[in-house]
Amino acid sequence: MATPLRLAALLLVLVAAFASAARADLVVSRADRKVDLTSHIVRVLTSLKVENAGSEPVSKVLLAFPNIQAKNLAAIRAFGTEGKVKGLSSVLPIEVVEPSGVPPELTFFSASLHKPLQKGKILHLDVLTVFTHFLQPFPEEITQADSQLVVFQDSSHYLSPYPVKVQTLSIRLPGGRVESYTKYGNTKLVDSELKYGPYEDVPPFSYNPIIVHFENNNPFAVAKELIREIEISHWGNVQITEHYNIVHGGARLKGEFSRLDYQSRPYARGVSSFRHLIARLPARAHSIYYRDEIGNISTSHLWSDSKKTQLEIEPRFPLFGGWQTTFTIGYGLPLQDFVFSADGKRFLNITFGSPMEEILIEKLIVKVVLPEGSKDIDVSAPFPTNQWQEVKYSHLDIAGRPVLVLEKPDVIPEHNLHFQVYYKFNNISLLIEPMMLITGFFLLFVACIAYMHTDMSISKNSPSYLAKLQWDEVQATVQQIQGIFHQCLAVHDKLETSLHDLSRTGDAKSCKAARKAADAQFKELAKELKPLLLSVQSSPQSYQIWPKLDDLVAKERELQDKLMARHATVVDSVEKKQRGQDIENWISSQQQKIAALRQEVESLLEYLSEI
Ligand SMILES: *[C@@H]1O[C@H](CO)[C@@H](O)[C@H](O)[C@H]1NC(C)=O
Ligand SMILES: *[C@@H]1O[C@H](CO)[C@@H](O)[C@H](O)[C@H]1NC(C)=O
Fold this sequence. Notes:
Helix content: 25-40%
CATH superfamily of the largest domain: tricorn interacting facor f3 domain
Number of domains: 3
Radius of gyration: 32 Å
Oligomer: single chain
Strand order of the largest sheet: 5-4-8-2-1-12-15-14
CATH class of the largest domain: Mainly Beta
Bound molecules: 2-acetamido-2-deoxy-beta-D-glucopyranose
Largest sheet: 8 strands, mixed
Main location: endoplasmic reticulum
Pfam families: Ribophorin_I
Shape: flat
Protein name: Dolichyl-diphosphooligosaccharide--protein glycosyltransferase subunit 1
Strand content: 35-45%
Organism: Triticum aestivum
Membrane topology: Single-pass type I membrane protein
C-alpha cells in the first residue's frame, strides 16, 4: 500500500517542473468521477468540462494515469462535444503519448479533437476507463464461511495535467460491509455510495491517496483462456464453439471444503463462491449444448425472447477462490443474420468477445473458419489484435478450410463489439463437395455392379465366398455388442445424474436406489454380452478386431467399478455427514481417472463403428 503514497510524494516534486511545460493553456472547470466497484471489473466514468483559457486553438487533451493503474487498463474511450451545454457527443480517437519532461511513473493518453478548441471555448469530455485486476483481495486467503474483502486504491483528486477548478469523486460499492475507507474533509458514506469532494482549485498532478476496504462477493469469473471457433457453412449455418477454462479470480479458499456444509447452507457456507454463469446468446441461436470432459451437462437453463436467448450454466461444483473448471458451449446461428455480401465480397459481421456476463478473459483466441475455397481474406476489428492464418481439414475437404485467427489479451465485456471478416468465395466451390459425393456414389455403384457380377461367377463353396459370409456375421455381432456398450454408457450417465441430483436435493435414499438399479442393469447387460463375445472370438475373421474388443470390455469394466465405488463413497459421506480433505482428494482423483477411461471407451467404440 506504499505505492500510492510514494507516487503522491514524487508527483509533488515534479508538479512544478511539468506544470509550466503542460503546454496548452487548458483548464478543467469541472471534473466529476464516478467509480463503479460492484463487479470485479472496475469502471470509471470521468466527465470533464475543459476550457481553453489560452490564446491558441488546442486540438489534443491529455489524460494521465499512474503506471500501476495503466498496466491494468483494459479499455479507454473518450466522447466529446463542444459548446456551453452538453450535446450529442462523438467518439474521439485516443493514443498513448510520451510528452517530454513528464515523470516516468505516469502514462499519458491523448484524445484528439475533431476540430481545434478555439480560445475561450468549452469542451465536454466523457472518458470511460475500464480496469482489470484493480481490486486486490485482502486477506488473500479466506475460509469457506468467510466473505470476500477487497481493497481499492486511488486518489481523491483527479490526476490531471491541468488545473482543476471544481471536482468530485463518487464510488459505488456493492452494498455489503465496508471495513474502512480513507477519510478527508468532505468525505461521506451514504448507503453504498462513498463521496469525496467537492474540492476547489486543485493544482495539476495533485494526488491524494485513498484506500477503500470493502466486501465484494460478486463472481470474480476469469477465463484463463477462451477459444472461440466460428465456422461458416454456406449451406445456411454459422456454428459457434467456445472452449472455456474458468477460474474464480478472488481470494483463495484455505482450509477444508465441506460439501455438506455447503449443501445445507449454501449462502452462509459459500458466500464467496459462485455456481452459475449466464451467457446471452443471439435470439435465433439453436442446437445449444453445454458439456465438459465427462459429457453433457443437463443442468443448464434456457430462456429466450425475440431479442436474446439466455443460457444459464451450472458447472458440476461451485467455484471458490482459485478453483478452476473447463467446459464447452456450442450453438448454431442462421447464416443470413451474420454473413452478408457487398462489392463482390462476402463478410461475416459478428461480436468478438464471450457471451458470458461480467467475465474477464485473460487470453481470447477467435478462430474464423471460412468455407473451403475462400480467397482474399481481410479483417476489420475495432481494436488491435494479433492475427495469423491456419488451415483446418474436415471430411471431404481437399485443400482444407482457411482459418483466420485473432488473439487478444485482457478482453472485457466492453470489447464485445462487432468485427468483420471479408472474403471472396465462388459459388462453384459450394458444388465441389456434393459433386465429389455424387461421383463417389457413382463409382461405388459401378464397383458394386462389377463385384456382384464377379461374385455370381464364383462358386458358393469357394473360400472367398465363405470368408465373406463369416465376416458379415462378425460385423453383425459387433454391431450388437456396440449397442450393449452404448446402453452401459447410458447407465453410467444415469449414475452421474443421480449424484448430481443428490448434490441438489440431499436425497441419499433415491441415490442408493439408482445405484441398485444400475447394478442390476449392468448384470443384465453382461449376461447378454457373453455369448456375443464368444461368437466373435471363435470366428477366424475376427483376429484383427478381437484385441480391440477385449480391450473395450476390460476398460468398460474398470470404468464401471470406479463409477460404482465413487458413487458409494459420495453417498456414504453425505449420509454420515462427514467429508474430510482426503475423501475429497480421492473423489477428485477418481473423477479424473473416470473421465480418461470414458474417453478411451468412447474412442474404442468409435474405432469399432468404423470397421
Ligand atoms: C449432448 O447433447 C447434444 C445436444 O443436446 C446432443 O446432440 C448430443 O448427442 C449429446 N451427447 C451425448 C454424449 O449425450
Ligand atoms: C455489423 O452489425 C452491427 C449490428 O447489427 C451493425 O451496427 C454494424 O453496422 C454492422 N457492420 C457492418 C460493417 O455491416
